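quick one
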Amino acid sequence: MAQEANLNKVFDQHVKLEEFFTGFSVKKDKPPQQPQKDIIAELNQLADEVKTCQKCVLGTTRTNAVPGEGNPNAQIVFVGEGPGADEDAQGRPFVGRSGQLLDKIIIAMGLKRSDVYICNIVKCRPPENREPRPEEIISCLPFLKRQLGLIRPKVIVALGAPAAKTLLETNKPIGQIRGKFFDYYFDDFSPPVKLMPTYHPAYLLRNYSHENRMKVWEDMKTVLAELGLSVPKR
Ligand code: URA
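structure w/ uracil:
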């Protein structure tokens, strides 16, 4: 009985989470901005390098590498932790349950998945979905830095502790750093862009609460405000 009540509660929580991030209207298509040819070529070149990379042990256990995908002119880049089983099977980022929630968050922001760029700090699946190890992150980080330097988004959203800690080179817990903008430098010459740490969608799915859900939504509203975009009406 207690187990059944618990299951009902979990089910109810998931339904509420689904409902919250649906029901936002999808924006009409804007004419696509033409990306510079060399950025696309360089992102493709990078993806080819990722697909044959053997710099760490994850290269030997992956099915498919997951370089990342999206709009080369994106104003926002979402950076996750690393591919899971679904992503490893398809070679695409955020296509499993976390990805479905991320898609809903993007739509709730009045955007489409094709407006943004989505990638991870490690491009190959850590076995059993364990956290990527420091040496794996260190081997893979140059790929992410190149991607960010090519796309040059106005805002980077770091999804979860491993992404936020890696990009900000901090050990502070995600609960302490989320919701605030930090500076991210593409190189020594360019002015910084904003980096917003927030909870990973998988964390939201595992730790459903109105409070956690609202925290992520507040973080995304802060991102929209930074970009001068209005929050879509429900
Ligand atoms: N979780 C991540 O961090 N990245 C993915 O691509 C999928 C799930």
